[in-house]
Each structure stands twice: as structure tokens, then as C-alpha cells.
Amino acid sequence: MLKLVPLILLTLSSLFSEAQTVITGKIKDNRNRPMAGVSIAIKDSYDGATSDSLGNFRFKTTDKGAQILQFTSIGFKLLEIPINLDGSTITQNVVMKEEPNELTAVVISVGTFEASDRKRAAAILSPLDVVTTASANGDITGALKTLPGTQTVGETAGLFVRGGTATETKTFIDGTLVNNFFFSSAPNIAAFSRFSPFIFKGTVFSTGGYSALYGQALSSALILESIDLPEQSSASFGLTVIGLNAGFQDLSKKKNSSWGVNYGYTNLAPAFEVFKQQQDYSKAPEYHNADANFRIKTSRTGILKYYGYWNKSQLAFTNNSIDTPGYYDKFSLRNTNTYHNFSWRENLGKGWKLQTGVSFSLNEDHIKSGLQDAAKKDILLPGFEFKQFGLVNKGSFFNARFVMEKRIVGLSILRFGSEYNYSDEKTTFTAYNNQVFPQAVKENLKAVFAESDIYVTNNIAAKVGARWEQSNLLNKTNLAPRISLAYKFSKQAQASLAYGEFYQNPERKYLPANGALTFSKATHYIAQYLKTSGLITFRAEVFYKKYDALVKTTSINGLEQAANNNGYGDAKGIEFFWRDKKTIKDLDYWISYSYLDTKRDFLNYPMEIMPNFAAKHTASLVVKKFVQAWKMNLNGAYNFASGRPYYNIAYDGSNYKFTDKGETPDYHNVSFSINYLPFIGKKNRKVYDVYVLQVNNIFNMKQVYNYQYSYNGLRKEAIVPPSRMFVFIGAFISLGTDRSEEIINNGL
Prior knowledge:
- The protein is mainly beta.
- It folds into 2 domains: 15-101, Carboxypeptidase-like, regulatory domain (Immunoglobulin-like, Sandwich), CATH 2.60.40.1120; 104-747, Beta Barrel (Maltoporin, Chain A), CATH 2.40.170.
- It starts with 20 loop residues before the first strand and ends with a helix.
């Protein structure tokens, strides 16, 4: 929840006086054609308008004196004109110039959603959208779950994309792989991502067919780019019902370097007193988070960046035992995580660019499980010794990456480079009788890749690439070709096709295996249609994904262990996305819908079936509105998913078979948030205060994620959210940073 803290930066400003000035005019492009959908605004004010189909605009303002009138439109250069507001009518006709061809040429966007500060034709969401989505709880992945292709899997952390498991999506920060992107979580309780969305200036979410520069993800890649230098020095403080935070960013006088630190503390105990949980917590979730950064410009075009993160968390609870009625299952978790990322990018001249980076992380989990009697006293029951154990997971991870880029002819670009991933994971399992079972897995994975953007014309382009990987752990190699084609029908519409092969190591918990395992493989086929018209975006995609060499498991002494790579499956479907900031005045909304038909035979599945983490139909409606008279941001979201299948699969000594199966009820969730900004209308403001109220599942609807079974399959119970409803209240103060212009441009 504390990831809502940066909302202090999302501020709007405009001061009303008695006299009104009318500003009117007509906008044309450099071919003398009227321009529709252009955003017109007075800089640092909320007053503005958008041009109509004939290029005309008209609005009133109560601002006075010398001001800057801004004109913005995707694919055109920002235009700023000085004006003097004196209460009269001002007519301002303008001609806007197109950006260089990079922004007017076709963009290969198949399978990809981008939320970026950069002005690109493929940008469908802004970073502001990522953090103001009501159902996201300030979490990056929560916002992405409102986009087509994603599933609502509330009992497990991660992004489930187009019929894939959460482990089939990988996350990269400044090019390097991030391990343990999410907080460590308890059984049947999904965790949030660790990182604040406001440390990133760009988010590229690929639901398939992603670049050859990335690998080890069968389904999806989430590619995050950290911010460069801040706009100015700033300090912030936040206080909520569940914790507090403080931060400071210092920008040098020459604006060529900066450093910053942040600290946050979260304790959910006060919230759990009000909103009772399914679990009985003896230690409510508690988090200490700290991060530090520095950024140094190495030249006019180069920058060196460092980001470091540290977290310590713990929790402990009991709940009714499904295996032993009348008793309680006891669970506790302590986690420590550190992450460090260095990156450097530089223009070397003569069309050459360099981007390199390294990251290192440590993660340590201490888990304890046991039984308690009705008096909440620890107990060891004969026949249920498996309920009592201790588990320690320790992992160290290193990633290095080197990419060179060369502009060849026109817009065509060649990229090539290499990557190295090292992981050392140690697991220690302690049984009820203190018998210890240690296990260690090390991996050295090397990759080389090459990719080229080829522009035949401004309307026809291709992205062709390949990636080669070699795994020491598996003693295997793979070669993955990838290609995308795009054709631009008009200034507003384009179509794209993509094909690619993607490989991934077996999941860690199935390693080391009794037999030799190999890479799992997915082959993607995608077709996309995209139309962007001013403030309206429509996107449709159809896809087919074929799985090969998925891991199959067998039961050995009651434990599931990897047996071979004989698993297979497929996923196919169609997706739609519609965003409209124009039709309804002062209202911004988007609608997404996904149809998914997927089956797979993997792990202990007796046959090819629809997996229990997939729903055939998912949809989202997200609505945003700023009401200046109330000084409020109003945000709402509705999320829907059709029922998911559930199974109880048992081993009879020779084969796996179903003992029960069914389908969960449909999932519905309505969330709402209000951000109150009382400083709006104050001149010469130096303090920016924001008050936040957010309600999740506002109608208190019953939600069932899945079902779990007792060890003998005789009893089952629904897996539901820890609480039906959750309310977040917070107050945040910022000194020194005002991003009103960003909000204004986003809202018009």
C-alpha cells in the first residue's frame, strides 16, 4: 500500500481570478491539413482544450499576465507560444511540425504494451496510468492486470499471461534480469512487487513475441527502465494507517548528477484490527524497506546509474487445519532481500550506441510450519509429522549484459550483444525429527543475441533476430529465431505479425531432477491491428502459443519430483483494448477483454486439461476523472474473470487420476480511490500535500480463487482473499517537486 506514497508527486495547479480570457484558434499541420485531437493547455495550469475534427479550439481561463500556451500531439513537435492574458479574446492560429521519421514511421508493437515518458506511437499507457489505477493498489503488476492477456490469480504472486504460469514471465530492470521481483509470500496469499513504480520512467509489457535481447521467459517479458536525473531536488514524507515513509533526492547545481535515499516502514496490524483476516496473525506482516541511488552524466549523451534496495520482512499466523479438523496449521516467514543494479549507456558517435549493466541480488527465506491444538499449543500428531518442518532458502544471483547498437541506413538499426546469468541457490529442509536435507543448485547461463530493425519504407518494417543460450546446469543449448513484421495503412492504423521461439529452464523447485531435463519451449504466433486516433486507441490481437518439453512429475516417497520433459500444450485466443479520452468530456477510461482457450499436460496432470490458473474470459473497465472544483482525482476500476477450473489429482501407486474437479464462481471486483489535493489554487506553493482514500472490493462481493484439499482428498475448502474488503487511508507531503504539467497533459 505504501507504493501510493509517490502520489504526492501527482499534483495539479491553477489559480482562479475574477476576469476571464477567451483563447480560440485553429491548428493545421505543415501540409495545411486541420489537426484533430491536439491538446492545448496553459503551462502549469489545468485550463485547456482539445481541437475538434476541423482543428478548431476554444476555452476560457481565469489566469492572468504572461503565460505559455502549449500544443502537444503524438508525432508532432511540442509547440510553445508566449501569450499575455488580459481578459480579452485571443485568437491564436498555429501550424505544428511533424517529428523526425522515427515517430511517423510504422512502429513494431505486436504483443507489447508500453507505458513510457517517451512520445511514441506505440505508447498506450503513461507511467501516471500505472500508479493511478484504482484496483492496482499502487503496484506495477496490479495495473498491468487490467490489460488484455493477463489473468486474475489472487492466491499466487506474479503475472499469468496467455495461459502461462507466473514463472513464465520474467522482469528486467535497465536490461538485467531481476530475481525475486515480488515479496516472499505465504500460502494462498499473493504478494506485491517490491519496487516503487516511480523509480521507473518506462514500462514495456510484452504479452508475447518479445525481443531477442531478452530470454528465459516462455510467455512474457516485463521490461522496466529507471529514471535518469530528477527534475529538481526534493524531499517527501508520508503517514498512513499502516506505516510511514520518508525520502530525499538531491540534484547537483550543474544538473549533471544526483543522489537519493528512501526509507519505508509498513505494519499491517492496525488494518487487520479493523478488517478481520481469514488467518489469525500472531505477527502481522511487517516490512522495512530502504533504497539508495545515484546518477552521473558521463557526457552529453551518456549516463551512469546505480540503484540499491534492501528489505526485511516477517509474518506469522495460524489457520484452521484442513488436514486435522480441530487443530491449527502454523506458518511463519522471515525474508531478507537485497538488490543492486549498475547501468551505463553512451552514444559513441558515428551511429554507435552502447548499453551495459550488471545486477546482483541476495534473497533469504526462513519458513517454519507446524500444528497447534485448540489451545494454540504446539503439538506433534502421529501420522501428521509432515506438517512440522523448517525450510531455509538462500539464493545469490548475478546478471551481466552488454549491448551494442548501430544505425545502418535511414531508420534501420542493428543490435547485438551478450548476457551472463549466474545463480547459486541453497535449500535446507529440516524434518520434524531434526533430520536435515540440504540441497544446492548452481547455474551458469550464457547467451548471445542479434536483432535488426529493418525499415523498407516509413510504412513497412521488420524486426528480425535470434538468441543463442547455453546452460551449464542442463548441459544443453538452444537457438531461438524471432521475427516481427508491421505495415502502416494510414497515419492512424497499422497491422503487425510476429513469430518467435522462446526457451526457459525448468522451475527451480524441480531441480536437481532424478533424470536429465532440458529447456521447455514455447512458439508464438501473433497478429495485431492497432489504431490510434487523437485521444482514442483501439487494439486487437489474435494469438496461438504452442508448448513443448514441459516438465512432467512423478511421486517418489510421497513427494512430487521432476521426471522428464514430456509435457506439452497450447494456448489461443483473441484480445481487445479500447481507450477513450475524448468522447465523454473530462473523462478518461479504458476497456480490455480477453478470450483464452488453453490446455496443457504438465506436472502431475493425468491428461491435457485447462490449467487451474486460467479463465476463459477476463475483462476490465478503468475510469479516471479529475474534478478541479473539488480538487480531487477520482479513479474507479471493475475487474471480471469467468470461473477457473479446479482439480484434486491423486496418485494411486502407478498413475495420477482425478478424485474431484469443478469450476469456481465468476470473479468480480470493484475498486475506488479518491486523491484530495488541497494546495491547488495556491500561488508560490512549496509544499504539495495529498490525501488518499482507497477501497478495494467496495461492494464486499464474495471472491473464490480456487479450492484446496486435505491430504487424503476427503475435505475441500475455498481459497478466498484474506479479507473481502480493504480500505487504505494516507497523507503525503512533498517539498520541491511539482509534476502538474504531466498531470495536465495526461488529463486533457
